[in-house]
Amino acid sequence: MSPKSFAAVLPLSPVLSTPDRLKDLLFSAASNLVAAVIILIIGFTIARLAGRWLERVLTRSLHIDSTLVPVSTTTVRYGIIALTLIAVLGRFGVQTTSLIAVLGAAGLAVGLALQGTLSNVAAGVMLLFLRPFRVGDYITAAGTGGTVREIGLFTTVLIDADLVYISVPNSMIFSSSITNYSREPTRRVNFTVGIDYSDDVEKAQAIILDLLKSDPRILPDPAPAAPVGALSASSVDIIVRCWTSTSDYWSVLYDLQKRVKLALDKAGITIPYPQHVVQFRDGSGGSLPTGVPTPGSAAGLTPPR
User: Fold this and answer.
1) Dihedral (C-alpha) 55, 61, 62, 64: value to the nearest 10 degrees?
2) What pTM does this model have?
3) What CATH topology corresponds to 130-180?
């Protein structure tokens, strides 16, 4: 077969036979690559700037709960990044509708493999919707406690009293009992003071009530009280009870305990040590503080009978 007849049977490809066509393809590929890089740079920059701008706007707004700020900014940022990637793929001629279908099937498979992780996302959404606590509240949940710094899609960040960073999965918090100490505007201060049986109970109660009523941090309603809580083995227990704002709770608690002790000392009312009365067979007996060995106990002997 002659070369001419061979060429007639198997014509050369237009790409290989036409240099201009090859140049056009290379130029198109290079331009698409440059455009894709530019789109990526612009998209990621816009995502970062939009996230920061939204965070500033939501933080300054008086009508937006600070709990929603981290999740909102993260959602906007990743949404812009996803649109950027779709635009880049479309630049290279990829059918985005087919890609979304493939990603949906892959997402289903990944979701089945990462059920625990996705449960944290679902729990995070429920925490944001139900709002059992907000940023800045002090809570105890899932066996730990601290001030809420951030509620994310996967974890909730707590800072405990020692300024230790604690990250707790949302699913653990949502499935456990949550105690919020900051939710209500007021809290009750409650502690017990024991006085000696020989002291005047009514006098001690009057001293404590005068202290409670003279403190401007203590609310007049509900009224403070100092009832007798129990007749213990070594003391008459008086309950010191009052109400204050949640922000003043710890300062009021610590300050009141000190002031009550000093006021009772000044009035000559004693706070007794635990005591036991020991009675012997010969009729003798006495009162010994707890921890003081009975006669003969130091030598391993029993009291005389």
Assistant:
1) -50
2) 0.60
3) SH3 type barrels. (2.30.30)
